[in-house]
Design goal:
- The chain has one domain.
- It contains 6 helices and 2 strands; from the N terminus they run ββαααααα.
- α1 packs antiparallel against α2, α1 packs parallel to α3 and α3 runs antiparallel to α4.
- The longest helix is centred in the N-terminal third of the chain and has 39 residues.
- The radius of gyration is 20 Å and the shape is elongated.
- 18% of the residues are buried.
């Protein structure tokens, strides 16, 4: 195991690799969560148009989806609030998650760069990243389940939607 030393503070290459792997897993799960929220927001926006008898083409629908895809988590949460996508409980959880996301993406290195050099701090850092991953997975699962219930409640055929998605995925190979 390689040891890295900086100003008499020692940590291992395994610590660094574990950190990189953990951050990668956290970002991967964040993006999956954002994808579910993006899809759900777009569906809610399109449903409002249908209910107002506003006609739109497939191309216009995809533009709405693409517009949602360009948003990062903070603006996605705002869009979800505007479109009544989230329950009040989920809104609060997403706001807390956004704080952790902002720490991970913007401040982790600045605020925790010495953590690998101290056993307790290192453990706290890895626990915080693990909690972020667990929250991302949990929120994604809850939001996805909420989206499915809403979708079916509007009278849409979920199996037909899955079949269409599978067909589009097969075409993209």
């Amino acid at each position: 195991m390689a040891t890295l030393t900086s100003r008499n503070m020692t940590y291992t290459i395994d610590d660094v690799n574990h950190l990189y792997l953990s951050i990668g897993e956290a970002i991967w799960n964040l993006q999956h969560l954002e994808n579910v929220m993006t899809t759900y927001n777009a569906l809610r926006i399109l449903q409002k148009k249908r209910e107002k008898k506003i006609l739109f083409s497939d191309e216009q629908a995809f533009k709405i989806l693409e517009k949602q895809r360009k948003l990062t988590l903070g603006p996605l949460i705002s869009s979800a609030k505007d479109n009544h996508t989230l329950s009040k409980e989920l809104e609060g959880r997403f706001e807390n998650f956004l704080t952790e996301r902002n720490w991970l993406i913007h401040k982790c290195v600045i605020s925790d760069y010495l953590s690998l050099r101290n056993k307790e701090s290192k453990e706290k850092l890895f626990l915080r990243i693990t909690a972020f991953i667990e929250d991302a997975v949990s929120l994604k699962r809850e939001l996805y389940n909420q989206m499915q219930r809403w979708f079916e409640g509007k009278g849409y055929d979920l199996e037909k939607a899955y079949a269409l998605a599978d067909e589009l995925l097969d075409k993209s190979k």
